[in-house]
Fold this sequence. Notes:
alpha+beta, 1 helix, five-stranded mixed beta sheet
Amino acid sequence: YVEFLVKPGTAAGIAHFYEKALAAHVTLDRQADLASARVHIGQNQSLVFQGVADIRYSSRVGLGLEFRRCS
């Protein structure tokens, strides 16, 4: 999967876009106040949009978005 760190409250809207505009299978997972959206794009492949509490100050974030390829 590829993970994108996003602002809190945006994962549901991202999930809605992929589901409606691209007819993708989407899973929305809510953990506490943060949510993550998993967009299934192929066999064993997905895009994960993970809400991060304070994205501006996360040491893992460059320009407000992080791209990580995980196996």
